[in-house]
């Protein structure tokens, strides 16, 4: 484990997002007065005093280069190299969509477990250890399970993971390999999450997305910090990101605002657009209906990693989209599959179903005229396609089976050049 020395504490405590009541920085996530969610509270003057573009650029090549903006207080953090993933200037996808300045933030290659969840778990487990937890846990749709199990193993923490029993095989294997105790629950994510709240109360474990949620969620801000730094310390005009609980989507924007507040970037409006699967789109439905509340839904989509029927931060995502002039749009499973293929075949990036959802929504918003061709747009790809192979395998195409001689190859080549490859059947040529 790489351990990075800290110089100053900027975390002041926790604050209710609804009534403003303040609490010590302990394992607590709900306000005892109004039941609103708690979030980390910082001393921004202290951050401003100890942080500059140069100090950040000279820091670790991980999320911990932004350590003053993260909710930890101790002298050492769990740094496994998470973050600083590529921001890629798109050429072929941008041209296909008719956009002049499209960038892809590629967390499909994040470490150690190939999704943005490595960011939030690195922060949550660092804070868990500071608070004295020796057992950590999570309720997960897959990516969080992978990240929690991997980083807990690295840190030597006992780990329990709770997942829906119908999760993709790649995500189950990608959790089991790190040696946690995995509980496969007969139910959807919302049922798993309710069970975990009861377990947290009874056993006193550190659940990264329950009693450690105020710390855990802050890790997503690093997706905003990195994009601004990688663009040369400026903010984009438009962001398209997936919406599951709504935390990732809102924290990216919070990251932008903290950079403005501390003088690291100039003020600039950023339009925030969100992506959901039609089969689990409670935020998109509320956005389109003009409602200011979220009506829970029962998920039915291949995009399981963002299939949260009762999103904890859904109302905040809704407000953010409206406040910034963005949109929350949804796409069908068929469009998600086409989104995965479009990204792979234009940019060489294999994303999971959440990324397919985001790319499909990006395409839809462009076609609807809701993203202008000259807007500097960043699309967030948050997970790796190798984790959800079941969803895409029937649509990825087939191999051409040939004999081991040149004549067979030439016959196959001739046919491949004249026929649509998607119409081929697995045939011995």
Please state the average pLDDT score.
94
Backbone CA Rg: 22 Å
Q: Briefly note the CATH topology name of the domain at 87-113 and 219-393.
A: Rossmann fold
CATH class of the domain at 87-113 and 219-393: Alpha Beta
Fraction in beta strands:
5-15%
Q: What does the main sheet amount to?
A: 6 strands, mixed
Q: What is the global morphology?
A: globular
Structural class by secondary-structure content:
alpha/beta
Order of helices and strands: EEEHHEHEHEHEHEHEHHEHEHHEHHEHH
Helix content: 25-40%
Q: Which strand order do you get reading across the main beta sheet? A: 4-5-13-10-11-12
Q: How many H/I helical runs?
A: 16
- Give the tally of β-strands: 13
Terminal-residue CA separation: 53 Å
Structural commentary:
Its cofactor is pyridoxal 5'-phosphate. Pfam families: NinF, PALP. This is Threonine synthase. GO terms for molecular function: threonine synthase activity. Belongs to the threonine synthase family. With 429 residues, the protein is of the alpha/beta class. Among the domains are: 87-113 and 219-393, Rossmann fold; 400-425. It contains 16 helices and 13 strands. The strands form three sheets. The protein has a six-stranded mixed sheet with strand order 4-5-13-10-11-12, with helices on both faces. The protein has a four-stranded parallel sheet with strand order 8-7-6-9. Strands 2-1-3 form a three-stranded antiparallel sheet. Helix 4 (117-130) crosses helix 5 (143-155), helix 9 (221-230) packs across helix 10 and helix 13 (333-347) packs across helix 14. The longest helix is centred in the middle third of the chain and has 15 residues, at 189-203.
């Amino acid at each position: 484990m790489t351990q990075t020395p800290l110089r100053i504490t900027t975390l002041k405590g926790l604050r209710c997002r609804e009534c403003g009541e303040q609490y010590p920085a302990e394992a607590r996530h709900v306000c005892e007065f109004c039941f609103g969610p708690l979030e980390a509270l910082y001393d921004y003057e202290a951050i401003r005093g100890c942080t500059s573009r140069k100090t950040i650029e000279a820091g670790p090549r991980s999320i911990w280069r932004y350590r003053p903006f993260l909710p930890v207080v101790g002298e050492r953090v769990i740094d496994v190299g998470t973050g600083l993933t590529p921001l890629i200037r798109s050429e072929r996808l941008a041209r296909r969509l008719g956009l002049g300045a499209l960038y892809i933030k590629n967390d499909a290659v994040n470490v150690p477990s190939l999704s943005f969840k490595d960011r939030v778990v690195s922060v949550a487990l660092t804070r868990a250890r500071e608070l004295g937890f020796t057992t950590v846990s999570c309720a997960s749709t897959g990516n969080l399970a992978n990240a929690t199990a991997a980083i807990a193993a690295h840190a030597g923490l006992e780990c329990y993971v709770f997942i829906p029993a119908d999760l993709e095989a790649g995500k189950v294997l990608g959790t089991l390999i790190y040696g946690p105790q995995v509980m496969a629950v007969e139910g959807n994510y919302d049922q798993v999450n309710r069970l975990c709240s009861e377990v947290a109360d009874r056993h006193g474990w550190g659940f990264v997305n329950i009693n450690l949620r105020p710390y855990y969620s802050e890790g997503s801000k690093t997706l905003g910090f990195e994009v601004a730094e990688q663009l040369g310390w400026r903010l984009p005009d438009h962001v398209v990101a997936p919406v599951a609980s709504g935390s990732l989507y809102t924290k990216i924007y919070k990251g932008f605002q903290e950079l403005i507040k501390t003088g690291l970037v100039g003020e600039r409006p950023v339009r925030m657009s969100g992506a959901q699967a039609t089969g689990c789109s409670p935020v998109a439905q509320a956005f389109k209906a003009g409602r200011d509340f979220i009506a829970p839904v029962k998920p039915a989509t291949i995009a399981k990693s963002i299939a949260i029927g009762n999103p904890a931060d859904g109302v905040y995502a809704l407000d953010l989209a409206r406040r910034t002039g963005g949109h929350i749009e949804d796409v069908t499973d068929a469009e998600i599959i086409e989104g995965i293929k479009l990204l792979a075949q234009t940019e060489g990036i294999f994303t999971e179903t959440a990324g397919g959802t985001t790319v499909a929504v990006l395409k839809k918003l462009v076609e609807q005229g809701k993203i202008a061709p000259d807007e500097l747009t960043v699309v967030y790809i948050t997970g790796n396609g190798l984790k959800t192979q079941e969803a895409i395998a029937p649509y990825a195409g087939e191999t051409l089976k040939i004999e081991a001689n040149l004549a067979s190859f030439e016959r196959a080549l001739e046919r491949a050049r004249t026929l649509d490859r998607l119409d081929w059947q697995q045939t011995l040529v």
